[in-house]
Amino acid sequence: MVLTGNQLIGFAESCEGERTLRAYAPAQGVDVEPSFALSVTSEIERAMTLADRAFDTFGSTSQTTRAALLDRIADNIEALGDALVERACLESALPAGRITGERGRTTAQLRMFAGLLRDGTWRDATIDLPQPDRQPAPKPDLRRILVPLGPVVVFGASNFPLAFSVAGGDTASALAAGCPVVFKAHPAHPGTSEMVGRAIVDACQAEGMPDGTFSLLHADPQHAQMLVEHPLTQAVAFTGSQAVGKTLVRLAAERDTPIPVYAEMGSVNPVFLVPGFGSRLPAVAHGYATSLTLGVGQFCTNPGVVVGVVSEELEQFVVETTEALAKVAAAAMLTPGILAAYQSGSHRLAEHPDVKTVFTGIQSDGQATPSLFTTRAETFLSDHTLGEEVFGPAGLVVVCDNFEQMKRVARNLEGQLTVTLQTSGEVTDEERELLPLAVRKAGRIVRNSFPTGVEVCPAMQHGGPYPSSSNARTTSVGTAAILRFVRPVCYQDLPADLLPEELQDKNPLHIWRKIDGRLTHDPVRSPGVHGT
Amino acid sequence: MVLTGNQLIGFAESCEGERTLRAYAPAQGVDVEPSFALSVTSEIERAMTLADRAFDTFGSTSQTTRAALLDRIADNIEALGDALVERACLESALPAGRITGERGRTTAQLRMFAGLLRDGTWRDATIDLPQPDRQPAPKPDLRRILVPLGPVVVFGASNFPLAFSVAGGDTASALAAGCPVVFKAHPAHPGTSEMVGRAIVDACQAEGMPDGTFSLLHADPQHAQMLVEHPLTQAVAFTGSQAVGKTLVRLAAERDTPIPVYAEMGSVNPVFLVPGFGSRLPAVAHGYATSLTLGVGQFCTNPGVVVGVVSEELEQFVVETTEALAKVAAAAMLTPGILAAYQSGSHRLAEHPDVKTVFTGIQSDGQATPSLFTTRAETFLSDHTLGEEVFGPAGLVVVCDNFEQMKRVARNLEGQLTVTLQTSGEVTDEERELLPLAVRKAGRIVRNSFPTGVEVCPAMQHGGPYPSSSNARTTSVGTAAILRFVRPVCYQDLPADLLPEELQDKNPLHIWRKIDGRLTHDPVRSPGVHGT
Predict the structure, then answer these.
(1) How confident is the model at residue B525 (pLDDT cuts 50, 70, 90)?
(2) What's residue B531's pLDDT?
(3) So which residues of B are the catalytic ones?
(4) Sign of the CA dihedral B107, B112, B115, B120?
């Protein structure tokens, strides 16, 4: 595939802006061809108008039609073969094994949503049958189902150039819901973005989707803001930093018609070493070092903070973690900006008067090495900045005087994507006390394992209390991610042929439905108002 | 029951503020005893702190425990007998028949949520079984369930002194979810509020709930704002005007930790007269006049706008509606403020140069009579204020030149709670064209009936696109209202005795669950990671 560096606006290409964006290869330290055009206002306008028009038909396509689209996108991505892997590695400095795995995750995710659509039950079809003879007034026929919101703007993340980017979970779930997507590519991997964007556009054309179902834009921050503020935009999905996420949330709230922003903004994902955990050393220390340094620590679920009670087992944990970290090689980070932020975050910790540096590797030029710090819980509780994420392989061990203080640390946490409990294996009173505190603060509770490695499945919850996410009631990973892009509509006394198939008496799609409050996949037995 | 005029803060009474609030009897035009104290800052603080503490235990009570609480509240409300009906009639000027019906709706709603809790399926228990031998990495055991958010602040509405007030749908669904409630009473019915508040407090005590599970405050706007801004508040529910609703949404968005505000802010609920509807005259006209004037037009779902195509059938509709409106007696409105707003809204229409007054009854002193206006679609499309709600029995008929213009009116609507289609009964092409436009704009589509009278059941959707609601993805009526106050949590690799019963292998509560993506109420068959 030849990269053109153009915007993909519906089925057309466009290049009205200047070609000022160049991809950068962080491992090699060089710019890469070609140059990409940045979008201009008229292109933003065209993408949004097309998306809105596409919604008129795309929003009411059948579930099986959209399932075929998602499958086709997955096939097209696989058909890109090694070229995609090579370009993604070049632009991210991530190893080929990781990118190949991520590609598998991306295509599996698309196919998971296709399966969800074919099953059909996700639309929460709910039927309350009429009671024409009820006193004092008859009860009408009421049927409720989830319908898509409309055009969705999705922002690509830097750290997953495939699985949280152009054809990642946000795009897959929005398209699955029936929402056209206008995608804002991450400038760290414009070439990868164009390749995947073409795979989606080709799939839309092959499957007969309307023009504007998908667009890919390379936008600077000012034009990205226009996308969020555009009156036709109905929702925004974002994975990235708290600074940018909070800005998007604010912009969306200040619109004349506010819209939801689903921002997944990362967190420090605390690991609590429950007293007695030492019986599982050295596994806990090795597991921690592995999780902390996986992908050069560039994960939203990276466990940046460890909380333990002062003890021999805690000292041993620090020693063994340090040994493990010492074996980790220096590696390039995703972008020069991320590397600089990691270095300044590490320096901030190192220079903090009440933080002790346990380990820093050799700071190779242009590469990152892991670091480990310790501080007392008292310091951690009084200095809010110590609880802020340092994106990269930096760990801070918070040493509590006793278990009561550990609970105080738990109670004072900000919202987190995950909280991990490391225990002896046996359930203790301490664990029973910590668990409800962890539940109040996090979207996922991990026990005797580590938070990196987010499964894509129905039971996953990737999203926790603010500020780890802007909306803790939703997830950006797993089948439930589709629920971000729909709203319920109730039909009162509509005849069968005006109802979506999911709500018709005969249940032609054989889905699970709630009828008068009971789950069933039977058809409606007693004839409804309309005898259908 | 003797009314004290005190705040009810958990199980205690408090009166630190001045007794400056007096109930007003709109039908009689007089103040009513006793006087009520307005809350002060320390009382706000105490109610929120108690609610947060109560959450530690209330949030993890069993479903059956909370079901018993809701049933007990319903019993206690019924036990108030005629005294409650009399006081509510006095404070609202609504007739006894309406208040008695509303009481039945309120207690039925509480018992509906009790039933939902006993059924248990609503918590969306989702289990993905582990695959320890999976390559390249084992799949962990993942189990997801909905958990309560924490303390919720609920604002009472003026127009339903029982069903959308102290023990109304918001309180019932928040308590059902496991969230303590701090209730801000509506100043239009402080006595009714205290009576129902005591019924809830008594039920909390009788059922052994923690102190602070429920508090009732009489707060001025400044203290109401403090409740929304309080760091312990996790969500807000509100039914009322767009002006107040939008203010609450803004306050919540500007917090350090933004929280969701579920504001149901009303709308004009357009009725589209689909060409051919005339075969159902005079039923359409009589039905419309009845719906428009029900409860003196003081409903969120009041159909304030009618859209028709210029024709003989439309003229006939206006004639017959006018005849029906002429028979409606003048009646007192809920408050002097609401009456004044209705009168100024009607005057605004009457004095609009391009609006024709078809009918106004005699404007009796202190009472409201219905009014009907017409205007051309061109005027309606160009003057945004004509689409704003006039709370009360005022109808505006928008006359379109042709069906194309009718569709343009539909496309240009703001978000609505409901859109109604009046048809001949037969499905026509015009109806097929209008329906998807209506779905884009509303939460509920009503056919050949009228939008007033909101059923309380699983299929109800009461909440539409902004600004009819702040969050179109939720409903404030029906079982799904509980979903506003919960978020999902995923447990990874937890042993059975640390899991909620709903997620344990054996399925001790016999609820429906999703296991590996399939709905079932069977126990987990293959032993999980932990062999439970």
Answers:
(1) confident
(2) 42
(3) 264, 300
(4) negative
